[in-house]
Design brief:
Blueprint (H helix, E strand, L loop, with lengths): L72 H32 L7 H50 L21 H9 L4 H35 L1 H41 L4 E3 H8 L3 H13 L7 E2 L5 E3 L2 H45 L2 H23 L3 H23 L8 H22 L6 H27 L2 H20 L12
Antiparallel strand pairs: 1-3, 2-3
Helix pairs in contact: 1-4, 4-5, 6-7, 9-10, 9-11, 10-12, 11-12
Length: 515
């Protein structure tokens, strides 16, 4: 018996057993009737539908009804449209995810088959190259062995021809071969972990996660539709498949993350080459990323143990991948710290000296007259000239005499600062003695620099050396003269004290103050 559409205007058309008109396919719309064939198709001889004797099994719902109890045909139609739209969006998302996975693996989805074939050809070519390389190495080893054997035979023949050395033993000294340079590949293997495990696990996780996400996603959508009709049991089924879909998506995301990490590790290994350290600016420029992103990737690789000896400096400017580079960095940091400490100490000493000098100048300005301050300043200036000449002159004996003169003159100036009254008797010190001394030392420095040391030059140098000794003695005498008034005052005080003690009967006789 044929089923008929009753919702729309126009003549009614007979339907097949599956619910479609005989002339055109059924399109979803407000008047369409969805039929679910529960029985087998109509037998031969009954093209219009099921036999009337089997109408109890019912191949179609009644016109204007819904397969879900309590749901109107229009609501059921909207539900079907929503499910169809959800399936379309899910299929697009899965297709996009598959495309991203394929791009992460280095190929496009439509080129996977060609990529697999190309990979197989490359593997065969690599196998042939490895076989040829092994054969070439074996031939080279045989050639070297033959050469070594020939050299040993020639050496044995020479040893028999000449008398034995080294006490009769005649063994040639063995020399250890120089260690070969490991090469960039060996260095990279020691500094970076292999990315093969990450790539393999990432591919497996991506494939399994994508398949599970796609399959369980479809089951979840079907379960949602079925759950509306089946009640609580359908809801539980939909929740279960939804959980499995989420697990598959998490597995897919983890696989993609592993592939990205493997790609980043390969990029770092390629950028470093045989270098032990590299700045993040260089890494960012070579990897075509920003500097903060390069720093974040380096920290992630170090945290995951993919760079075993990776270290980042304190300023976050350089990545070091070997212990040797880190030790050199620590040594450099310690050296820079010592330099900074010495500079800070020198600066503190300079500031303290400047403060002491200012304090002394303020004290002198309070106690000394302008003429006396000028005398002290002139003497200090000549002392500075003596120090500079001492640094320029190479003769050790002359340098010792200059240092001795500097010490005596410094004491004279200190005495003048402490007792300004002695400055009146020291006018020749800054007017003649010190200028003449500086002039003689400048002449000695000039004579010492002459390339030819003739008789006249040598005589002049000896005369200046002798004069420096005389000047040292004169300056010592001048220093002693500054204490003459003090000596007289001491003698007077002792005489007065002696008289007072004798007058009081506290002593029997005069003090014996003579040395």
């Amino acid at each position: 018996m044929a089923a008929y559409s009753t919702g729309g205007p126009g003549p009614q058309q007979p339907h097949r057993g599956q619910g479609r008109p005989a002339a055109e396919p059924q399109q979803p719309g407000p008047d369409a009737i969805y039929e679910v064939p529960w029985d087998d198709p109509a037998p031969a001889g009954q093209p219009g539908g099921q036999a009337e004797s089997r109408s109890g099994a019912g191949s179609a719902f009644a016109p204007g009804t819904s397969p879900v109890p309590g749901m109107s045909p229009k609501d059921f139609e909207r539900l079907c449209h929503s499910v169809d739209k959800a399936f379309s969006q899910f299929a697009k998302a899965v297709e996009k995810g598959a495309g991203e996975v394929a791009e992460a693996l280095g190929s496009k989805p439509e080129d996977n088959l060609k990529a697999y074939e190309e990979m197989a050809r490359k593997r065969q070519a690599k196998a042939r190259k490895r076989q040829a390389k092994r054969e070439r190495k074996a031939a080279e080893a045989q050639y070297r062995a033959a050469q070594a054997q020939a050299a040993a035979q020639a050496q044995a023949a020479q040893a028999q021809a000449r008398p034995p050395a080294n006490g009769g033993w005649g063994f040639p000294a063995a020399s250890a071969p120089a260690p070969a340079y490991p090469g960039p590949t060996a260095l990279a293997k020691g500094r970076f972990r292999s990315s093969g495990g990450l790539t393999a696990s990432g591919v497996i996780m991506t494939a399994i996660g994508g398949a599970c996400t796609f399959a369980f996603g479809i089951f979840t959508a079907v379960g949602i539709v079925a759950g509306l009709a089946a009640g609580p049991a359908g809801v539980v089924t939909a929740v279960l498949f939804g959980t499995l879909t989420a697990a598959g998506a998490a597995l897919l995301a983890g696989g993609i993350g592993r592939l990205r990490t493997a790609s980043q590790l390969k990029s770092f290994r390629r950028i470093f080459g045989d270098r032990e350290a590299c700045t993040f600016d260089d890494i960012a420029a070579r990897a075509l990323i920003s500097r903060p992103k390069a720093l974040a990737r380096a920290r992630k690789l170090i945290r995951r143990g993919l760079i075993p000896h990776g270290r980042i400096d304190h300023e976050a400017t350089t990545l070091m991948v070997t212990e040797n580079a880190y030790r050199q960095y620590c040594t450099l940091q310690q050296h820079q710290h010592q330099i900074a400490e010495s500079q800070r100490a020198a600066e503190e000493a300079r500031v303290a000296e400047a403060a002491a000098r200012q304090s002394r100048e303020r004290d002198l300005s309070d106690r000394l007259t302008p003429e006396q301050r000028a005398f002290v300043a002139t003497g200090r200036d000549y002392l500075g000239q003596l120090r500079r000449l001492d640094e320029s002159i190479d003769d050790a004996a002359v340098s010792e005499r200059i240092v001795a003169i500097e010490e005596v003159v410094g004491r004279i100036l200190a005495r003048a600062e402490g007792e300004p009254s002695v400055i009146a008797g020291l006018d020749r010190l800054t007017a003649y003695y010190l200028p003449t001394t500086v002039k003689l030392l400048a002449a000695y420095d000039n004579l010492e620099e002459q390339p030819v040391q003739g008789e006249n030059i040598a005589a002049s140098r000896r005369e200046i050396e002798h004069t420096l000794g005389v000047l040292h003695s004169a300056f010592e005498k001048l220093l002693d003269d500054t204490y003459q008034d003090l000596s007289l005052d001491v003698s007077a005080d002792i005489a007065v004290l002696q008289a007072m003690l004798a007058q009081e009967g506290l002593v029997d006789g005069p003090f014996d103050v003579k040395p």
